Amino acid sequence: MRRLVRVALLCLGCGLCSLLYAFSQLALSLEQEAPRRQGDPAFPVRRQLSGGDVVAGGWRAVAGSAGRGERTQLQPMQERCKHVSLSYWNSYWMLPSDVCGKNCFWEAAPRYDFLKTKPSEKMHLAVVACGERLEETVTMLRSAIIFSIKPLQFHIFAEDTLHSDFKGKLNSLAYQEKFNYTLYPISFPTENAGEWKKLFKPCASQRLFLPLILSDVDSLLYVDTDILFLRPVDDIWAILKKFNSTQIAAMAPEHEEPRIGWYNRFARHPYYGKTGINSGVMLMNMTRIRRKYFKNDMTTVRLRWEEILMPLLKKYKLNITWGDQDLLNIMFFHNPESLFVFPCQWNYRPDHCIYGSNCQEAEKEGIFVLHGNRGVYHDDKQPAFRALYDAIKNYSFGDDLVKALLLPLELELQKTQHTYCGRIYKVFIKQLSKSIKDIYDRRSKGR
């Protein structure tokens, strides 16, 4: 009888150990798969070192100066034991010796404490600036800093002559703890650099090569210089988690109203959906972009991102008007399953109001991201857009957001009611008011 009890206890112990091992392996595999499903990096990216070389897609790019707070030292091996990139579920005695050596077991408690106070994930935002776009770009970055919650990493691609000015402007901004930045030169594949430079506006096609240049960045929000955030970047960044297993990027439609659409009336090339897409705000899971093989109309063989760009340009360069945006439309026409389409309030442009209001989402909830294309921030054609741009440009960090930003802006917007966009001026401040209220609510809670 005793022998049977011992055997039963032994079997029970073995079964329990097997169950625990299987559970730990399942949890580890789920954690490793999560980044690919959600579009979020589970491991911290390796930061671009100042002055380091980047070799991608057949060209050589030199990384610009790292912004304040950029670290250039590798983390000591012994620190990896309590690093967030290691699995929370991994038993410490199961970690390989090259991670923590003999101290893994003894570092269990400090690592557990570290995981409980896991630092916020950085959001990566990229912009390309050439010519007279310095002030416009800095104003865009200011809007991101004012409203965002988690830390921001700016990737600024600019002509060499603008680098010193960018450093001076950004290093003088308040809220330094909320962002880091890295400056990069404008660079294209050496064999065809001339063709890419003259495509549409100077430097505009640089965005097509971001997945190759920023090879260590998992996800990225690209925006044009004439963008203003009226809501935290955190909220558009969260759209990455809404991607299904096939989606690699998110953009808004070029138009909501086909009767005034450009692509459906004038395009001489394929385009996405009914009215095309606008690439001024483009959210990317760049890991998926680098891995994907794209269907195309040039060959039956699917091509990778770096393989498809130049053939597309050669085939359609006489038929495209809007440069890199047209190439993106062609790519997603053939690969529609790869695009997540977000509503117009995430990329609100003059076209949404100059012929009458045609962005219903903005009417309901306000504008989330304002896109001042057509140069409307710098002329008097659309004073509502210019009023908002001037308000953020002139706002002094630390001043009361209601008294120094919101109320003066509302007074200026009321003066624009002689224009179609001015007649619906309340959509310009509806979300802005909420974002400011949320900031004060977080401060009152001690966040």
Which structural category fits the helices and strands? alpha/beta
User: Residue share in helices?
Assistant: 25-40%
The SSE order reads HEEHHEHEHEHHEEHEHEHHHEHEHHHH
Compute the separation of the termini in Å.
63 Å
Radius of gyration: 25 Å
Number of helices: 17
**Sequence of strands across the biggest β-sheet:** 5-4-3-6-9-8-10
**Mean pLDDT across all amino acids:** 81
Largest sheet: 7 strands, mixed
What is the overall shape? globular
Low-confidence stretches: 31-66, 69-120
Query: Approximately what portion of the residues adopt beta-strand conformation?
Result: 5-15%
Using DSSP, what is the number of strands?
Answer: 11
Summarize the structure.
The chain is of the alpha/beta class and 447 residues long. The protein has 17 helices and eleven strands.
Your description of this structure?
The protein is an alpha/beta fold and 447 residues long. The chain has a seven-stranded mixed β-sheet, sandwiched between helices. It has 17 helices and eleven strands. It is globular, with a radius of gyration of 25 Å. Strand 4, helix 5 and strand 5 form a beta-alpha-beta unit. The model is unreliable at 31-66 and 69-120 (pLDDT under 50). 39% of the residues lie in helices and 13% in strands. GO terms for molecular function: UDP-D-xylose:beta-D-glucoside alpha-1,3-D-xylosyltransferase activity. InterPro entries: Glyco_trans_8 (IPR002495), Glycosyltransferase_8 (IPR051993), Nucleotide-diphossugar_trans (IPR029044).
